[in-house]
Amino acid sequence: MRSARGRRQWQSTADHVRVTGKRKSPLPEADGDTRSVAVSQTFFEKLWDQHVIAHLGQDTYLLQIDRLLMHELSGAQPLRALEAAGRRPDSPRQVFAMIDHLVATQPDRGIDDVGPSGGAQMIRDTRILSKHYGLTFFDTDDARQGIVHVVGPEQGIVQPGMTVVCGDSHTSTLGGIGVLAWGVGTSEVEHVLATQTIVQAKPKTMLVRFEGRLGTYVSPKDMVLHLIASIGIEAGIGYAVEFGGSVMRDMPVEGRLTICNMSIEFQAKYGFVAPDDITIDYLRGRAFSPVFEHWDAAVAYWRGLRSDSGSRYEREVVIDMTDVAPQVTWGTNPAHACAIDSVVPQPRSFIDPVERESVERALAYMQLEPGAKLQGTKIDVAYIGSCTNGRLSDLRAAADVLKGRRIAPHVLGICIPGSTVVKRAAEEEGLDLIFKAAGFQWHESGCGMCAAGGAHVLAGKRVIGTTNRNFEGRQGPGTRTHLASPVTVAQSAICGEIADPRVN
Questions:
Q1: What is the domain range of residue 259?
Q2: For the chain, which terminus, N or C, has the lower number of CB atoms within 10 Å?
Q3: Partners of 382 in the β-ladder
Q4: Per-residue model confidence (pLDDT) at position 38
């Protein structure tokens, strides 16, 4: 058993290179001796075993945590608690903090400007204590600032084979880079700050294979919405989910991040894609990626992390994407999704009475009639951004639809890039000019109006957006949110109503 203090300390920028053998299991021989045989392991099992410090009984383990990411909304309280207890972070070099949730996103914001939800004290506490403890901190005016789940991969802070936690449920996003990442509560953030370890129950394993080919304007966002609608919002409970299949093998990292982002929306705490050459090419040259000989060692380690041939999963799901259309949600959870050219479902078509009642309530809240077409439903707001779809590839896709066109006069169009790096890269390409010419507001980076940060602006409005949650009141009191991809949101903004991007 390793002690928390005895675990390997990381070296310079190549500080996550651990090479371990395959797990061994004893096989009795005739003379009573044992010999070891290699056991096929999934990607998840390899990462889990490499991070176990102690087995605490049954399925509970003490795990090493390689990276702790924090934002002001969930980081200020643990930092204050650590200070009050007179303790210091166990491994400050492994902790990265930033301002993303409560900061204003309006153009030309000041360093102390906060969004409509307030939170100035949380921002100040995170700023002061992060500097006090020597944490890597990206302030509002830092060129690296942005949504924590966007910044982590973008800067190379998270690397394949790591365990990563953050006080945010969408930390599963980072699984798209080949890490084991999950959201934790504030007390757990404090524990990781103090010890760089966490107690965790080992989940079962699930493999989701996306096969076939994607149709025109069908994106990773459509893939994950279709998946959740197919298997339900409780299908991931108790599972660590690996995404694979022919569609995933060819997908860029940013698309993988989108899919892993919404793992939590079917209640899978962990969602991930095993690292491959696409991952390695993405990480090459990032600010915190390994360099020189450390890069070669890291790549060698990363290449060994894929699931072994013959490894088994407790559950497998196969999704054929060949005939799947762009998706849009009609209700109040991400499983309430369907093809954009279909109709609002009839509550009576749901056999389970609890589900039927849930659908009836959802349609009442969304003010939609059963059997009505989703296309043509008037919208008030088109929103592009968030940790789900606020990356450069997302903005490029939307800009391709918006170029040379104007959004409907009654529509409020808002684009909030996922990070300052994304924003500046988009501006270098002239994407901001396309958004502005089309009638969109072009904001500074941050979480913005994904959650109740849009309370004053979006209250009572019908919004089509690229975010990840459409619960009642998620974006403000009475706000009715439809989830969709960047291209669907862009097309809908132009038409002033929910619109199919395949129909120009």
A1: 67-319
A2: N
A3: 413, 464
A4: 64
